[in-house]
Amino acid sequence: MCLSAEVSFAAAAILVPTGVVSTYKAARTDWRYVPICALPFLFGVQQLFEGLVWTSGEAGDLTAISRYSLAYMFFSWLAWPVWVPMAVWFLEPVRRKPLYLGFVILGAIFGGGQYLPYAVHQEWLTVTFLPHAIAYGGIELFDFLLAREWTYSIYVLAVVVPLLVASRPEIRVFGVLVATVLAITYLFFRFAYVSAFCFGGALVSIYLVGMIFWKGRRSAQGRELERGEDAIASDPAGSATAHAPGDLPR
């Protein structure tokens, strides 16, 4: 994000292995959490691409800047509006799945409309290197139909709202963290909002690692409690015999 190539590469070095660990833990704990717990890994890959944008800019390699910025924007415009609601879809009860399917479809249409034109019109995407920040801008397809404020409102609807209205409280907590990052970005970093929001999202995704380990510990405690209850239920006579008066020493 903002700051430097070193910061982006450091974030990637932390998030990629951390995301692998959280995804593996989710697979062992509850497979439905795998997509949401893969977010740190995906954010790490995105930060890696931004680090490459930084180094390409320092080298003055315009071709590399275009290539890596397109890879970076793939996550910003297309991956997040689809992946986030899809990840929550796996965690929702059946009656709420149609709502999240709607979020996924909205994200796919919106994200595709925002990102895919860059593959044809690479000159639409502009990359400006500021002191300690990268500003991604240029022409967006929906500029021909909507004001930018409406475009960003649709983005928030596709990415942030699915987290905030999730049925599971631990996902709503993550939604509050992401919404906080969005507010901070809007208030202080509008000059580089894409980079700032994605970097902030990458930082708060660390919460998901702690969340899945907490879930795993709770599941393990629940299994131990069930085993203890099953053992008592399977041998009620033995428990009674152990306390029978006739067994007391004379």
Automatic annotation (TrEMBL):
Pfam families: DUF6629. Residues 231-250 are annotated as: Disordered. It comes from the Bacteria. InterPro entries: DUF6629 (IPR046737). Keywords: Membrane, Transmembrane, Transmembrane helix. The keyword Cell wall biogenesis/degradation does not apply. The chain crosses the membrane at residues 6-24, 31-49, 69-91, 98-116, 150-166, 171-188, 194-214. This is DUF6629 family protein. It comes from Sphingomonas canadensis.
